[in-house]
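An instance as discussed:

___
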Amino acid sequence: MCGRYSIYEDMDTYLRQLSLDLVVINGYDHERINRYNVAPSTRVELIRPAAGGLSVDRVKWGWSPFWAKGKRPELINARAETVMTGKFFKSLWPAGRAVAPANGWFEWIPDPVDAKRKQPFYISAGDDQPLFFAALAEVHPGLEVDERDGFVIITAAADEGLVDIHDRKPLVLTPALAREWLDPDTSTARAAEIVQSGCRPAADFKWHPVSKDVGNVRNQGGQLVQPLEKLP
């Protein structure tokens, strides 16, 4: 996963898709989010369990443990193969489980003739429904932003046709598995099963080339996810 995704509907749409019988304990904006080009280090909506229900927070995409702050760039992704056993994410697993709602994500394919030239592709659900990325987060209470706060998206090996786009993909959960992932009563063993085998298959997705304008983090708007009529 190359580090860009979209989340542009209103939060109520994602919560309805999850069909959660839980109260959202904090306030959130009911307007369309309209983020078509979410980049690392920016704050974006995240759904996570909280005492008495759920919390919807705007959290920075990117995280590192306290002992690694300033020593290396913050990571935005965590590999499914090592997230449960590696030292780096020890403080997040399994209690930091969260869900990053999305509508799709971007990948860049190198030109077969010139590897320096890359064509962005947009991947979304075949039925155009919202996506739910399995995530791990550290979020501290309070009105002020805590510098320790952040989240990472878990990634899995790509399968079938998606391999032609990129060798990794976000760990996209069905709404039912996303509910399990968010449930504090879900055991560590069951959460591990979801990481290992819960990702939706390539057959659930569609993809198309998009404008290279998505490469500029300042660009936003629905045109970024629209298919190119033909490759340049």
User: Anything to note?
Assistant: The first helix runs from residue 11 to 18.
